[in-house]
Amino acid sequence: MLRISAISAMLLALASCATPAQKCVLDAEADLRKTRNDIKELQATVDRGYGLREITQYVPVQTTCERGSGARVTRYTCTQYEFRTQDVRYSVDLKKISAELASLKAKLPDVQAQAVLAVAQCESTYKPTP
After folding, report:
1. I want to staple 21 with a disulfide (CB 3.0 to 4.6 A). Which of 60, 88, 124, 126 is the partner?
2. Which residues belong to the signal peptide in this entry (predicted)?
């Protein structure tokens, strides 16, 4: 999930400085990118045999803190908190995941064809004038 969010953030950043023609192409290919990413993630899950979920925990950490200023600084042990992220395995129904993967792979040519048509529409709409 985090990868998808990172990709979305990059595309959003790219789209914010893109020309209207580039934005049109990005929008036209959005479903294709999502389908390909979903296929990639499902294939990885099938290959591993289990799912991965990223969790973030708020973990206490013992450290040294300071109180006071100048010559009257006192050091003492204190607890601070950090965020730690880790991948956790979970069981999946491989038959269901494999069926979903096969469905997406079957759907991919149609999604690619739609993307090609949409990109062609963008190119004709934003054709540079001589």
Report:
1. 126
2. 1-23
Q: And the tokens for 48?
A: 């591993």
DSSP-derived secondary structure letter, 55: E
Which CA distances in Å does 58 have to 61, 63, 124, 126? 10, 15, 52, 49
Tokens in use for 129?
């004038």
Q: How far is CA 77 from CA 33, 59, 66, 88, in A?
A: 50, 16, 9, 31
Q: What is the pTM of this model?
A: 0.66
What does the pLDDT look like over 54-65, one tens digit per residue?
A: 999 999 999 999
Burial profile 117-127: b = 16 or more Cβ within 10 angstroms, e = fewer: ebbeebeeeee
